[in-house]
């Protein structure tokens, strides 16, 4: 079955760029059946949707984060990635990748296990 | 942005009791666009209910969802020991998603 796995540094310095990758196994991103998302969870803000990408490269971001977020896709590696620039302590969170259906895109039916990213000097 | 407010913040029940969790939206949400998730410590959220009332694959029938407009409810008919967790509602509107702050279901 399809599985999602986040990876990347667990510690990022303030003002730097957070970079994470989600590897999709058991199904090809390029099939076009899903949008691929990033979501984060922090004690202060709860669950917060960051944005999504389609295999074609089209994206949509949370307006509150849009100026700092870039999501990209590499279909040859079956991966998609998140970059969040100019991070502060408020960006400390567990970051999840998740999918929503292309035709029914109202809910997240599959999540990765999440990865904790701490912003600290 | 549609804000979801869940109540109560914490619900203390004994196994076998009925649990009723509420999710109120700041403006009307299409029923098809409302979902519920369960999260246990150290795990990612798991989809329970979509379309306000449809159970996801493998979810026991003691879980049910209802509601429309701005008021939605998740009901667990008889709480099992494995149901103690945090529950979140989530909505979709104009290509964006928001979550409620969660209700913690704890053992009384």
Summarize the structure.
The complex is a heterodimer of chains A (121) and B (108). By secondary structure, chain A is mostly beta strands.
Helix segment tally of chain A:
0
Sheet/helix structural class of chain A: mainly beta
**Mean pLDDT across all amino acids of chain B:** 97
Please give the largest β-sheet of chain B. Answer: 7 strands, mixed
- Taking pLDDT < 50 over at least 5 consecutive residues as the criterion, the unreliable ranges of chain B are none
Q: Please tell me what the overall shape of chain B is.
A: globular
Annotation, overall tally of beta strands of chain A:
11
Strand-and-helix sequence of chain B, N→C? EEEEEEEEEE
Number of strands of chain B: 10
| SSE arrangement of chain A, N to C | EEEEEEEEEEE
Calculate Rg of chain B over CA atoms.
Answer: 13 Å
Shape of chain A: globular
Report the mean per-residue pLDDT of chain A as an integer: 96
> What value does the Rg of chain A take, in angstroms?
14 Å
DSSP helix fraction of chain B: under 10%
What percent of the residues of chain A sit in helical stretches (DSSP H or I)?
Answer: under 10%
- The quaternary organization reads as heterodimer
């Amino acid at each position: 079955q399809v599985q999602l796995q986040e990876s990347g540094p667990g510690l990022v310095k303030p003002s730097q760029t957070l970079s994470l990758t989600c590897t999709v196994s058991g199904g090809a991103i390029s099939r076009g059946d899903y949008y691929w998302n990033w979501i984060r969870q922090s004690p202060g803000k709860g669950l917060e949707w960051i944005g999504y990408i389609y295999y074609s490269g089209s994206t949509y971001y949370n307006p509150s984060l849009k100026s700092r977020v870039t999501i990209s896709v590499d279909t040859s590696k079956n991966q998609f990635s998140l970059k969040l620039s100019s991070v502060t302590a408020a960006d400390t969170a567990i970051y999840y990748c998740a999918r929503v259906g292309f035709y029914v895109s109202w809910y997240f039916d599959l999540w990765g296990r999440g990865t904790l990213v701490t912003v600290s000097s | 942005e549609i804000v979801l407010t869940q109540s109560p913040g914490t619900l203390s029940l004994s196994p076998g009791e009925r649990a009723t969790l509420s999710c109120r939206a700041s403006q009307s949400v299409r029923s098809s666009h409302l979902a519920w998730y369960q999260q246990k410590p150290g795990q990612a959220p798991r989809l329970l209910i979509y379309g306000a009332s449809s159970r996801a694959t493998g979810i026991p029938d003691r879980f049910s969802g209802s509601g429309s407009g701005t008021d939605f409810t998740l009901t667990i008919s008889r709480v099992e020991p494995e149901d103690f967790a945090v529950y979140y509602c989530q909505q979709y509107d104009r290509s964006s998603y928001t979550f409620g702050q969660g209700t913690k279901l704890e053992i009384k």
